[in-house]
């Protein structure tokens, strides 16, 4: 199983998925992230999927699970960088990820978290 | 790993390998990025089904040509418990496992042809075809 690194920037955790995710790595990421959110007291999580070429129902459910889990741990999640072909395919597959906040890129994702927490993190 | 386009599905790593091989062959067949993404996603769902519901199986990946256009044909087969009610298995949200129940119905929407043959105790074979547009 390959591990996905989790980076900390202020009170935000940033995950950039650069590997072809197998199901074990997905489950490992969920556990690692829950521990890091609690250990660091992070208020926000940004998941960058710019490099992710496909999202199937398992990976899609992982994103929804992470968002729900972080909410319970007092952190907001933003998924950034979804490719157009991935978005089209996800909707056709039947997963609209209604509970997952998204932004077009990392910068907008970080700004969205700052806005949620009532401050401007881009300055 | 591949033997005449035939690949084993026995582990999570094999599911990833199937995705990568289907992507490579879809590019070879001249598919657009969106069609590549759809067929690779369908392959990922179906390969995982083989692993989760049957404990393993195999897939054959080949380029097909009907004289007018090229496409990709994927044949998944296993010797698992089989599917008792195929119509019900294709309904979104229906599942006998831990998943979302989108694998079969969802992957059928992502391809052009979808043929499922199964009976209890006799395993399952699913053959899907995706044609390149234009």
TrEMBL record, chain A:
UniProt-listed CDD domains: STAS_RsbR_RsbS_like (cd07041)
Origin superkingdom: Bacteria
Sequence ranges assigned to domain STAS in this UniProt record: 2-113
Protein name as annotated: STAS domain-containing protein
Organism: Nonomuraea harbinensis
Lineage: Bacteria, Bacillati, Actinomycetota, Actinomycetes, Streptosporangiales
From TrEMBL, chain B:
InterPro entries from the UniProt entry: HATPase_dom (IPR003594)
One Pfam family it belongs to: HATPase_c
Domain Histidine kinase/HSP90-like ATPase per the UniProt entry, residue ranges: 34-134
Protein name: Anti-sigma regulatory factor
């Amino acid at each position: 199983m390959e591990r996905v690194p989790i980076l900390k920037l202020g009170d935000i955790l940033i995950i950039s998925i650069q590997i072809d995710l197998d199901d074990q790595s997905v489950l490992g990421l969920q556990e690692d992230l829950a521990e890091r959110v609690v250990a660091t007291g992070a208020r926000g999580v940004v998941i960058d999927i710019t490099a992710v070429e496909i999202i199937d129902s398992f990976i899609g459910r992982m994103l929804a699970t992470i968002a729900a889990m972080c909410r319970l741990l007092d952190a907001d999640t933003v998924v950034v960088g979804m490719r157009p072909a991935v978005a089209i395919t996800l909707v056709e597959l039947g997963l609209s990820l209604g509970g997952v906040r998204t932004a077009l890129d990392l910068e907008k994702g970080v700004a969205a978290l700052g806005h949620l927490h009532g401050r401007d993190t881009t300055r | 790993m591949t033997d005449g386009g035939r690949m084993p599905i026995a582990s999570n790593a094999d599911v990833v390998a199937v995705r990568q091989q289907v992507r490579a062959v879809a590019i070879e067949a001249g598919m657009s990025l969106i069609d590549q993404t759809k067929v690779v996603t369908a392959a990922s769902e179906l390969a995982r089904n083989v692993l989760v519901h049957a404990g393993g199986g195999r897939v054959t990946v080949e380029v097909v040509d009907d004289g007018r256009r090229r496409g990709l044909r994927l044949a998944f087969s296993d010797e698992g418990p089989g599917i008792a009610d195929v119509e019900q298995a294709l309904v979104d949200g229906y599942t006998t496992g831990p998943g979302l129940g989108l694998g079969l119905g969802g992957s059928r929407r992502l391809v052009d042809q979808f043929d499922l043959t199964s009976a209890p105790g006799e395993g399952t074979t699913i053959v899907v075809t995706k044609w390149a547009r234009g």
